[in-house]
Amino acid sequence: MNNGSNQLLDVLTREGVLINVSVRYWRGCKKLRPEDVGLNPDDVSDRLISMGHKRLLPKDAMADLSLIEGRAHALIEANTFPFLSGVGHFLPNPKLEEVTQKLKDMELEFWDAKNHFLQRYAKLRRDAAQEWRQMADKLVKDPERLLATIEASFPDPDNMSRFFSFDTQLFQITVPKKVSLEVLNLADQRAVIKARDKAASEAAVKIRHDTERFVAESIASLREQTAQLCDEIIQSIGSGKTEGVHQKTLNRLVKFIEQFKSLNFANDSEMEEQLENVRKELLSKTAQEYRDDATAHKQLTQGIAQLRNTARILATQDATELVQRFGELGRRRLHLAA
């Protein structure tokens, strides 16, 4: 691997950070065992019967917490790129302030929702116990055994807080270095030192290779997203549900162009130039103007289709040259900054 490839990760770490968001809350579920419903475990085949997880509380009891969790994950998915098979999500610098601020706001909402849930916990628990009693009488021969299991599955109110967390972690990944003799205990043998050095070297090679692939896949992903959006816009315009062209459709494309620029950490100038041309040539008119002018309407449809076709072609092209250019550009920026 050449020196340019070796330094690609260093460039990438200056273009953004890795982010992980973990949202935890009590799910209100219990995995039942055969004996919980009055069955002999020896008589139950795991191949044919699964007790599965059953809700201790109605689904809507956790709705607020579930909604916040979904919004947090959606925010990450929309503004980052998955990095190294889930090690983290790469968040480009232009999106850093916006995303972290939104996560802080969501975290405040999360703690409010948690407190609201705990305030209702005792009542929810009583109501659920009544519902379970009504169902248990119909489901099993020994309802008291099942009810006892359900009741024991509810955490004590004083211990509920440990089930809740909203954590945002920002970090960067670096290539591991060889292990030096100084950091090892004297008891370590030469074979151990050699093995650890070999593992570090192999990990470094893999990380560098995966980093190149990550940058290439990120470029292709943004290009494919462009093509997908164009497909949806063409379909919307042709549906006739909004008299052909709606202003929301045009605004959606404007917003996507801004989003593309903020996520374009690899400096995909070719795709960005295509989008800028569309902005200048097609987005200077209003939706009403397009509805009133058949010629302009046709130009809009053809222009969006052309953008889609170009984006799809670019998405399938080998991005090696662009990845190398990204690394070279990043190193030049570092030298200028120094």
What's the arrangement of strands in the largest beta sheet? 4-5-1-6
Strand content: 5-15%
What's the number of domains?
A: 2
Major pleated sheet: 4 strands, antiparallel
Structural class: alpha+beta
Please tell me what the overall shape is: extended
Could you give the order of the helices and strands? HEEEHEEHHEHHHHHH
Rg is 28 Å
- Helix count equals 10
Mean pLDDT: 80
Q: Indicate the percent of residues in helices.
A: 55-70%
Q: Termini separation (Å)?
A: 26 Å
**DSSP summary, beta strand count:** 6
- Unreliable stretches: 1-5, 39-51, 332-338
Quick summary of this structure?
The protein folds into 2 domains: 169 residues, no CATH class; 110 residues. Helices cover 64% and strands 9% of the residues.
Features:
338 residues; alpha+beta; extended; 9% strand
Structure description:
By secondary structure, the protein is of the alpha+beta class. The chain has 2 domains: 3-171, no CATH class; 218-327. 64% of the residues lie in helices and 9% in strands. The protein has 10 helices and 6 strands, in the order αβββαββααβαααααα. The chain has helices spanning 3-15, 63-79, 93-139, 143-152, 190-239, 247-263, 269-282, 287-292, 294-316, 320-337; strands spanning 16-24, 29-31, 53-55, 81-83, 88-92, 165-171. The strands form 2 sheets. A 4-stranded antiparallel sheet has the order 4-5-1-6, with helices on both faces. α5 runs antiparallel to α9 (294-316) and α6 (247-263) runs antiparallel to α7 (269-282).
Write the layout of secondary structure elements.
Blueprint: H1 3-15, E1 16-24, E2 29-31, E3 53-55, H2 63-79, E4 81-83, E5 88-92, H3 93-139, H4 143-152, E6 165-171, H5 190-239, H6 247-263, H7 269-282, H8 287-292, H9 294-316, H10 320-337
Antiparallel strand pairs: 1-5, 1-6, 2-3, 4-5
